[in-house]
Amino acid sequence: MPPPEPNRRDYRRCSHVVWALAILAVGGLAGCRSSLKYRLTDHTAVSIQLNKRFDIQLGPTARPRRIIYPHGISLADELSDERAVLIALWNNAFFLETLTDLGIASGDLVQAGLLPDPEFWYIASVPGKPLRYLVDFPIESLWLRPIRVAAASKELFRVRDRLTQIAIDLIRDTRQGFADVVLAYGRREVAHQAVDIRKKIASIARQRLEAGDISRQEYSAALIESHIAEQDAARIDYDVGITEERLRNLMGTSDDRTLLLIRRIPERYPAPPALAPLVADAVRNRPDALAAADAAAAATERLRLTRIGWFRFLGILDASGGYRDSHEVGPGFRMTVPLWNWNQGNIARAEAELEKVERMRQTVNNQIVQDVYQAHLRFAQTQAELKILDTLVRPEAEVTLDRTELAYEEGNTTYVIVLQTTHQLLASRLREFQLQADLLRYWAELERSVGRHLDDPVQSPPAPLPVPRDFPLDEAAEPIEPPDATPLPSP
After folding, report:
1. Which of 33, 177, 185, 270 is the most buried (most CB within 10 A)?
2. Tens of pLDDT along 306-349?
3. Which domains occur in the chain, in start order?
4. pTM to 2 decimals?
């Protein structure tokens, strides 16, 4: 018995349905076109880290090319180093630029959690040829998705910790820029003191010249020293403006030309804490150390993905017009046959990348130890030198200059002695300003090297994460320590 003729009306009905689905798909693609508007990056993850380490929070996300002053602070008010740091964290252009990496990593995490859409393949029916269409879906994406999400999550942690370290570096740079401004103010003060002292000496020399007690050459030497002091003061006046411009740039307020009112540095700092706990805390908890651990964890997940991610397994639903029915459906599948290509090259590359980031962790560890030791020693060195200067050198220089000026006025000493004692006093005052600025500079460097405000308690180390069995290095390698948990966007 011959097979029944296919029902052309059913063909047309199915064809209309398929064409309607195709039109809806095209319309959906047209509606998904990207807009020129963009969403500003959420900085919450980095702000939480800064709040834990320095009790400082980032400002609200604002449009580019805007200056936002936190908590009612204005450049018209007296500016301290703490206020300068807060303004910098809210407005520094380079820092806000790098913070967008957090949005990029967050987008990668969301993308890693998405499953691929099924693909639709269709051939329209014509007289004498039935319609045909099929739908396929990559089934391997179901078991690869957790690995992709894990790798993207570790990468997001790495970016967060790297940006936290950049923020801590900005805190250090801003405080040191503030110290440079204060030092410039101190140098200007000493320069004008030098002008007054040398003018006074030149006046005494003129009186002694008129009295016939000294020669014209000795008076000329005193007068030249007075003019040189004025020259130095004129040069140092411009140095103040140069250092202020660098501070404005660090704070991100170059467009605000309000006159800066700088608060002077406190003369004393507490002694630095014990060195060994600082080193141990920095090695465990400094953001760049955590970022290195995050990079190793992400590389481990990428190695897992590389070893199995090359395999393809597609589930297929095939449909066509038949003789018994106008819409006959049959299942099928398509898979990779691993004869020659097992992704050996990419696996070797992923193993090498994992080894590289593990060795990078040791490089970062060594750098952290060096940073803490050097900052600690420099701060202690500066404190010791300033103590001697304040208690021994400067008081004796002040008393000696007063005696020398009186003796020179009475003709009991030479101008060379006056010149020498004047230089000693001015050098001691200038060195005092230098050391006070160095205290702030090295204290900021010490906090940066530890990765937190030094008044905060030492945090407990995070729990270790076991090394994967397929780790390409030796078995004695250190375990990977994961970062502390921070809420992340859901994939």
Report:
1. 177
2. 888 877 877 777 777 665 666 677 788 778 788 888 888 888 99
3. 41-115+150-313+357-450 (1.20.1600.10)
4. 0.80
